[in-house]
Every structure is written in structure tokens, then in C-alpha cells.
């Protein structure tokens, strides 16, 4: 049984990322599971650091994007929204080219906070980054 509030489609999610950082970095959501999201990001001139490998900040941006999207998909957006409180990442191996794939999985979905784990793999399927984000669930202010 899916944990999402409503029935989000990949097209709707991808369109929401078009004119902001995820769109500029080439991120795309490729799968919506019952309790996880999968997305990709190219390793190219937009996302590499000066030494020619994937920039750690780009990996963190991918992790935060998936974690934030997932967290907000769990709540009723007419009553709540989710914002990042803390994120950490361990960069395990360099990625010089290709497309990285990230999977955000729910660790804890509570009334006032959520924790998501994001694992990013290189084009060969090797784990290159593992991240965890804590999200605050905030009530929408009354008008």
C-alpha cells in the first residue's frame, strides 16, 4: 500500500522541477514506488567539480531533492508542507561520467518529522554516495 497522499505521477513531479535547480542540473524522477522515489542526474559540466568528477554538492542536491519531494508527497499539502532540517552525505567513490541513480526510501514518517535515506549509485550500479535527510512537517499558516 502506497504511503503517498494522492496519486502523484512522474510527469507532474518532473514538471514541478523544470524551472529551478533540479531542472537546471538535469534531474528526473524515473520511478514512484509505494514508499520510495527513484531519480537520475547526469554527470556532466553542470555537475562536475574542477577535478573532473561528480561534485559532492551535486550529489547532496540530488539527495535533498528526492527526500524533499518524497516527504511532501506523504502529507496533505493543503494542511502541511515539509522542509529540510538536516542532511548528511558520505561520498564513497568518484564518478567521472554517465548518469547517477538515486533512491529515496522512508526510514521514519511521523506526525512532526520524517527521515529519508537516499542511496546514489554510479552507472555500473556501485554505491557512490549515501545520504540521510531529516524533514520537519510544518502546518500551513491559516489565512
From TrEMBL:
| Pfam families, A to Z | 4HBT (PF03061)
Q: Which residues form the Thioesterase domain?
A: 51-128
What is the name of the protein in this document?
Answer: Hotdog fold thioesterase
Q: Which domain of life is it from?
A: Bacteria
Source organism per entry reads: Microbulbifer harenosus
**Which family does the record assign?**
Belongs to the thioesterase PaaI family.
- The answer, when asked if Hydrolase is one of the entry's keywords, is yes
PANTHER family for the chain: 1,4-DIHYDROXY-2-NAPHTHOYL-COA THIOESTERASE 1
- Keywords, comma-separated and alphabetical: Hydrolase
Say yes or no: keyword Hydrolase present: yes
Amino acid at each position: 500500500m502506497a504511503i503517498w497522499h494522492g496519486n502523484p505521477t512522474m510527469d507532474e513531479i518532473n514538471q514541478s522541477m523544470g524551472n529551478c535547480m533540479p531542472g537546471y542540473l538535469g534531474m528526473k524522477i524515473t520511478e514512484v514506488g509505494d514508499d520510495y522515489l527513484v531519480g537520475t542526474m547526469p554527470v556532466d559540466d553542470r555537475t562536475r567539480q574542477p577535478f573532473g568528477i561528480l561534485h559532492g554538492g551535486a550529489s547532496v542536491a540530488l539527495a535533498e531533492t528526492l527526500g524533499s519531494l518524497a516527504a511532501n508527497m506523504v502529507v496533505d499539502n493543503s494542511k502541511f508542507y515539509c522542509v529540510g532540517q538536516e542532511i548528511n552525505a558520505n561520498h564513497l567513490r568518484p564518478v567521472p561520467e554517465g548518469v547517477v541513480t538515486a533512491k529515496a526510501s522512508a526510514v521514519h514518517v511521523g506526525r512532526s518529522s520524517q527521515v529519508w535515506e537516499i542511496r546514489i549509485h554510479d552507472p555500473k550500479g556501485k554505491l557512490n554516495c549515501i545520504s540521510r535527510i531529516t524533514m520537519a512537517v510544518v502546518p500551513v499558516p491559516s489565512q
